[in-house]
Specification:
The chain has about 220 residues and is of the alpha/beta class. It has one domain (about 10-220): Maf protein, CATH 3.90.950.10. Helix content is about 35%, strand content about 20%. The protein has 6 helices and 6 strands. The protein has helices at about 20-30, 40-45, 60-75, 105-115, 185-190, 195-220; strands at about 10-15, 35-40, 75-85, 125-135, 145-155, 170-175. Strands 2-1-3-4-5-6 form a 6-stranded mixed beta sheet. Helix 1 links the parallel strand 1 (about 10-15) and strand 2. The radius of gyration is 18 Å and the shape is elongated.
Length: about 220
């Protein structure tokens, strides 16, 4: 369970379609005020979550993962699909961000592969952006919820910072001058990040879904 004990009793349990503890932590922090108990699919099924992400867009992959997590658990499911687009690489790694170096690559391997791909590219040509798509799927017939967010920046020449995960140590956030995403405090990152923007769009939709599900349960009682 990742629901804050200082909050009211949870009205809804939502499974997050990820094995990434960093993503789960960020989503929990961003939606802390909602009466939701956040769990991973593996907390319900007892095994790691796995699904073929063969969509051509972040939105398509987020929906694929949310639908699979919902089917596997019978719970309302939230999925995030996010990644990095680098202009000098024609938008790569894009939907293959988590496996840019190879299948099941580590963050360090992907970062090294990105630096190698950009070798010789000057600072002015290293513009990039993080994109995030969120999808929420309900087992009760509600329409899927879909939102998106972006964060503009550029790719540095070396990893800096101890926070975050993924490409955060290489991604210099435009709004913070020369600081990488991994050098930001959690509150700073949540305010400007692609995931933070997508969550801001999702918050009112998720609040409405909680109310709808509560009403449906009351009607069935």
């Amino acid at each position: 369970m990742t629901y804050s004990p200082n909050s009211p009793s949870p009205l809804l349990t939502v499974v997050v379609a990820t094995n990434n503890a960093g993503k789960l932590k960020e989503l929990h922090e961003l939606l802390l005020e909602l009466a939701i108990e956040w769990v991973r699919v593996s907390d319900i099924t007892g095994k790691p979550f796995s699904v073929v992400e063969d969509g051509e867009t972040f939105e398509a992959n987020a929906l694929i993962k949310a639908q699979a997590a919902c089917r596997a658990t019978g719970y309302v499911a939230l999925a995030d699909d996010s990644g990095l687009e680098v202009d000098a690489l024609g938008g790569r790694p894009g939907v293959r961000s988590a496996r840019f170096a190879r299948e099941h690559a580590t963050d360090s391997e992907n970062n090294q592969a990105l630096l190698a791909a950009l070798q010789g590219v000057p600072e002015m040509s290293r513009s990039a952006r993080f994109r995030c798509s969120l999808a929420v799927v309900s087992p009760f017939g509600n329409e899927p919820l879909l939102t998106a967010g972006t964060c503009e920046g550029r790719i540095g020449f070396e990893a800096r910072g101890e926070g975050g995960f993924g490409y955060d140590p290489l991604f210099i956030v435009n709004e913070f001058g020369a600081r990488t995403m991994a050098e930001l405090a959690a509150a700073e990152k949540n305010r400007v990040s692609h995931r933070g923007q997508a969550v801001e769009h999702l918050r009112p939709l998720l609040t409405r879904l909680i109310a709808q599900l509560s009403q449906q349960l009351e009607e069935r009682a």
